[in-house]
Amino acid sequence: MAIWQITFYIIDASVNNINLDQDTDFDDSYFWKNSKRDVRLFKSVGLFLEENKSWSSQIKQYGDLKSNCLEVYFDDMDKILSVSFRIDFLSDYVLILEKVLIFCLNNNLAIVTLKGDVLPLQLDFFKLYISKYIKENGIEIE
């Protein structure tokens, strides 16, 4: 991940009894291990992020690895193992972010930071969160 990008996890929000250990990095696999959803759930992401060939046959890649990208890792039975998405600050990312947020709202999914903080699925919140992230990390966007 480049310094002008930020990565989030997407988890199944219907999974209950969540205990996050704040001393370690967040692991989203718990939420998918207890979910019955499969990789087809993300097929409509291809409407706003083009599906591209991944380096692995068990990853659905939407978007460009060097830019805005959503990746779905799945097993031999198409069961989701992990989902992440990356925002590229050098692109016009707001429209894509808005579509990801709507997709998550429509499918009972949550967006989580790499530290395990669940974020509200509101575009204005994400814009502020990203602005703060850029400022705190000294990222200069031209």
Shape field: globular
What number of domains? 1
Helix vs. strand class:
alpha+beta
- Distance from N terminus to C terminus (CA atoms, Å) equals 19 Å
Number of helices: 3
Task: Calculate the mean pLDDT score and round it.
Answer: 89
How would you sum up this structure, described in words?
The protein is α+β, with helices and mostly antiparallel strands and 142 residues long. It has one domain (5-14, 24-136). It has helices at 29-33, 94-106, 123-136, and strands spanning 5-12, 51-52, 59-63, 69-74, 80-88, 109-112, 118-119. Strand 6 and strand 7 (118-119) form a beta hairpin.
Describe what is shown at a glance.
With 142 residues, this protein is an alpha+beta fold. Helices cover 23% and strands 25% of the residues.
Reconstruct the topology from this structure.
Elements: E1 5-12, H1 29-33, E2 51-52, E3 59-63, E4 69-74, E5 80-88, H2 94-106, E6 109-112, E7 118-119, H3 123-136
Antiparallel strand pairs: 1-5, 1-6, 2-3, 3-4, 4-5, 6-7
Features:
seven-stranded antiparallel sheet, 3 helices
